[in-house]
Design a protein that fits this description.
single chain, alpha+beta, Methane Monooxygenase Hydroxylase, Chain G, domain 1, 2 domains, 4-stranded mixed β-sheet, two-stranded antiparallel sheet, 10 helices
């Protein structure tokens, strides 16, 4: 889902006898899920500029007034970015920032960074005292199961980077981009849930046939958010100085393999509830957490001073997150029907 900034220049083309056309940047069209035949709508500003977005589908939520944030000045770093992220996550399409004093260059850059960090958001107006950001995503095109699957793939990519670091003893260059993509997908997941909670029709279209399932989805997304943070920190600890890790792979690699397998199993059982498989995955991840804790407790000497101990501690907490997700998977399996299984003692 990551997409970069396209070229700002487009050549005007002839279309038919009396019309002209301009192509849309491919990364933007892909991020908006636009396909040939889809409709777009545009608005013209007083200065002659245009901005466009995908046409709303039948049943979509109407676009209201921008979410307005006004202050005498914005001096505290990080506040504007968090305001924008929060407004996006709760479902606002337009976000307007106004300041009585001209916004400092670093605050403007903060707003631009916030837009780049959210899927489908662009700055559509920028003045010394005012910035407007607009979301162009059609919520009906992003299903909750698909976004959870995408999050799973990114988290597994984190674990694969950890394996590469331990095998090759060299720093990874992908961690920053993986973390950015994780944040984008998770922010969109939270946004989808807020929108679906206000529109049962949308909830059904994006994968929550029973609106009561939105509570389960919220637990799932919260656990995935925590899991993303833990994996980013743990792999980052290994990545700080790979040459000092020594034989850390002996302790860490089996744990990483277990986390990858556990993540695959848990997401599969969440998407396709099965009581037997959910119970098995829950038990495996509970045992994985115990193994990780024992491995961290046994580390001595240099291993406690390099990234190995911090990575193991983080992976231990990640396994605990998977166990929480396993409990939700069991709940979902129980809720969908009657199934008899034989639980064998360990």
């Amino acid at each position: 889902m990551a997409w970069g900034a396209p070229s700002r220049e487009r050549r005007v083309l002839k279309a038919g006898h009396s019309s002209v056309a301009v192509t849309l940047p491919k990364p933007w069209a892909e991020a908006m899920n636009l396909r040939p035949g889809d409709l777009v709508v545009f608005d013209q500003n007083d200065d002659g500029t245009l901005y466009l977005k995908p046409a709303p589908v039948s049943g979509a939520l109407p676009t209201g007034s921008p979410y307005l944030v006004t202050a005498y000045a914005f001096d505290t770093p990080g506040v504007l970015e968090r305001l924008v992220v929060g407004a996006y996550r709760v479902g606002h399409d337009a976000i307007e920032i106004r300041s009585e004093r001209p916004l400092a260059p670093e605050r403007v850059e903060e707003l631009l960074d916030a837009a780049r960090g959210l899927l489908g958001v662009s700055v559509v107006a920028q003045e010394p005292n005012r910035v407007v950001l607009q979301n162009f995503i059609d919520p009906s095109k992003y299903g909750l199961p698909q976004l959870v699957q995408r999050t799973k793939m990114i988290l597994i990519a984190f674990l694969e980077e950890a394996e590469e670091i331990l095998h090759r003893k060299v720093r990874s260059r992908r961690l920053v981009s993986l973390r950015e993509e994780t944040n984008k997908v998770l922010a969109l997941l939270v946004r989808q849930q807020f929108l679906a909670s206000r529109d049962w029709g949308l909830a059904r279209r994006i994968g929550s046939a029973d609106p009561r399932q939105l509570l389960e989805w919220r637990v799932v997304v919260a656990a995935l958010e925590e899991l993303g943070e833990l994996l980013a920190e743990s792999v980052g600890a290994l990545n700080r100085d790979p040459s000092e890790l020594g034989d850390a792979g002996t302790d860490v690699l089996p744990l990483i393999a277990g986390l990858k397998s556990g993540l695959e199993d848990i997401v599969e059982t969440l998407m396709h509830p099965s009581l037997g498989r959910a119970c098995e995955a829950y038990g495996e991840n509970a045992r994985l957490s115990t193994i990780a804790q024992e491995a961290a407790d046994m580390l001595k000497g240099p291993a406690r001073r390099n990234g190995t101990f911090h990575a193991l501690s983080g992976f231990n907490r990640a396994a605990a997150c998977l166990t929480s997700l396993g409990a939700v998977a069991i709940d979902r399996a129980v809720a969908v029907g009657n199934e008899t299984i034989l639980v064998t003692p360990p």
